[in-house]
Records
---
Amino acid sequence: MAETTKTAETTRTPGTAENADVVWRDRGGARRSTRAWRVRTSAVLVAAVVLAVLLVPPLVHLDEQAVDLASKLQPPSLAHPFGTDDVGRDLLLRCVYGLRVSLLVGVVAAVVATVIGTAVGALAAASGGWVDRLVMRLVDVFASVPHLLLGIFIVAMFRPGVWPVVVSVALTHWLSTARIVRAEVLSLRSRPYVDAAISGGASRLRVAVRHLLPGVLPQAGLAAVLMVPHAIWHESALSFLGLGLPSHQASLGTLVQSARGSLLAGDWWPTLFPGLFIIVPTLAIAGLAGAWRERINPRRRSELML
């Protein structure tokens, strides 16, 4: 009887292991398929956003500020796919122009913040000692203040406009990049080829330019891409509060802010479509950035495949 039970367990074990392997392979394949579908969808959405921003203003010879009180607050139709706002302006055209301004703010602010964060993080890691400790304590002090509160303080010193918002977003979003770059530089400094370059008599500047900077650029570029959606949301929040762009200038934040009265009156389209123009492009950019992160971090990619 004992021999029969042992034989049954022995014959069952390989099948169980094979079934487990099949289950894990199926799960890994399903996750890879889902990830590939998400990346393709994000790429299509980002391409559509870029084409709309670049092609619609030159091809559509209409004034997005043109007022037509006879057509105010019309629901979506063939003539106006997104409807009209409270003064009769075409909402689709306004959303495209607003997305154009918000993307400009987001991209420029992300680039400036990445440059600042890369310079600060590289300086802290390359200097070491008390310089590193002082710089990182300053980073911690800035990080302890909420981004939105600090951004409001910065834009309050200027007149409403695009560039004050860019400065506000850039000066409040470089902290995470500085920490990432510092950690990456510290990791690269311990590599054998860096020690060999230093032993060979290479100057600190040459080591930084030839060996450290190329290793930091992928992480810095990823930080910049991930910062674009955050910057768009930050600009939208400031404009919604009336502290960002002036109310007559189309941006996604000002469109949502000007549609509050229409929403209370039961007209949903002036709020829905600008909100979708905020959510969909930012999620698409974040999806592509996530794929990039998996590509430059093989360890994380292997974990996600399980």
---
Amino acid sequence: MHCLGVNNVNTYSQGCYLGVLGGMGPMAGAAFALRLAALTPADVDQQHIPTLLRNDPRIPDRSSAYMAGGENPLPHMAEGVRFLERAGAQLIAIPCNTAHLWYDQIAASTRLPVLHIIQAVIEDLRRLGLPKGRIGLMGTAATLKLGLYQRHLEAQGYECIVPDDDEVERYCMGSIRAVKANRLEDAFAPAAECIARLKARGADAVVLGCTELPLAVPHALRPSLGITLTDSIDALARAAIAHYLDEQAQERVAA
């Protein structure tokens, strides 16, 4: 696979792209593209990662599908991945945590590697100096109820602290819904309250485990919260960048 390297000038070729299955929600997909560019170690435009963003909000709601018998989003997500594959993507990123409840089926629908957002968050915890510890979790009701983060974190030696059902509804979902409705000014207070509660229960760090939550908690306000936060948008962007840097290193060795 060629022309994927960061820090070398990319030559034009269709088969260079990071494919991003967005729209879940649309602001999170757009924010992922922005943070990917912001975190890429590049000096000029041509050193950035060529990216195709399919920001399609028509994908049925993931939480409703699992929690309330809503329409199955898997066929729509799989079709989106195949669209990106046909368009020349060489790697897939999905900036939606709840979508990863269908990760195995999505990965089976394509020949391309698909990044896993929870594993990206675990790698980010290690980058932040937390190879183990007590991790507070925030996310959608479906993500938390179905243990998506818990099973991955606990398998790698972490202890999870999860809000109760009322806290998930009031603080996590309240914040997530505000972002989805473009009411960012209303999203910070409930998210900050949940973070404070998890910190009071002994969390060493808190996972913003829904891609709306990093938008609810702006980077500039995070130091005031007094606890390490790992951001699932940034973690996934860092994982994509690491993949491309790996490709670059392999190409240098092969040359």
---
Amino acid sequence: MGKSRSTRRERAAAETVVEDVDGGRAELIPDRDRPRAWSLLIDGAPQSHVDLDDPAHLSFEYQRRLGHVIDLVAPPGRPVRAVHLGGGALTLARYLAATRPRSTQQVVERDAALVQLVRRELPLDPGARIRVRSTDARAGLAKVPDGWADLVVADVFSGARTPAHLTSGEFLDDVRRALAPGGLYAANLADGPPLAHLRGQIATAADRFAELALVADPAVLRGKRFGNAVLVACDHPLPVAELTRRAASDPHPARVEHGRALADFTGGAAPVTDAAAVDSPAPPPSVFR
């Protein structure tokens, strides 16, 4: 009997899980190369990858770049307080919990049905100090106490686009309010040629923070293709040299822009306000083929 149940569990674990959630059709697809790893797709768009046996494994290139930021936010192993705007499969929260035990984290994920699906199919380590709130990212951020967070990560997409109200200077004002002195903000941005959205986001962050860096595939920075870029911002010098080394050594190497080169890249773009904000551009269909 025990062997039969085990066989059934193993067979079930290898099957794709499909379920309608608030944001569309969610699919949890097993990774054939890693026994307890899954990819999360929403309406066909890849969102997250999780390895339950090795939560420190980051498969998606933009998540590895955010992982580098997490690694550099404090000395190795030191617990931090983090806010994640956008949860997906809770990949980055799991990564931080694995690499910085005893950290305290708040995840804000609007899609309550998705949270239930992830908790059921990809359960969190019960020892991880991760609290998940099902509400709008900006509303959830507003409830974070002043100066509480060492790190705020924004990775929010609805229909593969970042909602307009999470792209403005007023939104970044609340990020700054929630950050502790010396705290760090990191955002996953997506854009393609002519990169107007990305340039506007850099200009907006430069209007609020003293130090910026951008991590992206060189082809994305040259406007050759649609892709992700990780924007890092704070009010103290960034570990640019170490971030550059880590980004360059990735399986998909990235370039780090900062200082004058990043200012030149912005090309005179104006900061975004709530009144003028729009959703980030939709990716072309070919991105997910």
---
Amino acid sequence: MFTQFKNIDTAFSHIKRFSLFLIVACLLISLFAIYKGFTMVDRAQQKVYILANGKVLEAAVGERKDNIAVEIRDHVKMFHHYFFSLDPDEKVIQANITSALNLADESAKRAYDNLKEKGYFNNLISANISQEISVDSTLVDLGEYPYAFKCYATQRLIRATSTVRRKLVTTGTLRNVSRSDNNPHGFLIQRWQTLDNHDEPLNP
């Protein structure tokens, strides 16, 4: 009889240990499954699929800080494109200037008002002058906020009989604002000013 009780006690002990092992194993498997699930969801959220011309393209999602210099340079380029790409048409000039002023503060508005007061835009219209600009480079300082920039660009004033090339250097700072359709990068140019703007002869 005592042997039977001993066997029952030993069997119960084995079952107890096995049950504890099974519970711990289930917990470990559950935790691992939860961890892998969160990892897969996070990895999936880092990928965006875009449908373009009937083709599915994969785009990676990154933190803004990883691309902030690229975004700043493109923001500065867009602003200068809108402000200086002008045709001898009042509606085109107004539309471009409005788009430029959405990307900058009152310093750009003052520059526009000064040019308008001097008759610059009326001269473009009356003389049938088209103005184009290409940004050569933009230096950005991310070491201090608001971020400082210096933009080097080339303007071309196209007349019926000649083309004038003009070097342009501007500077300013940028602060963060909310993104919108009118300001997709979420920056606002501040204290914008022209450092240099002189004519250069075209290469023969």
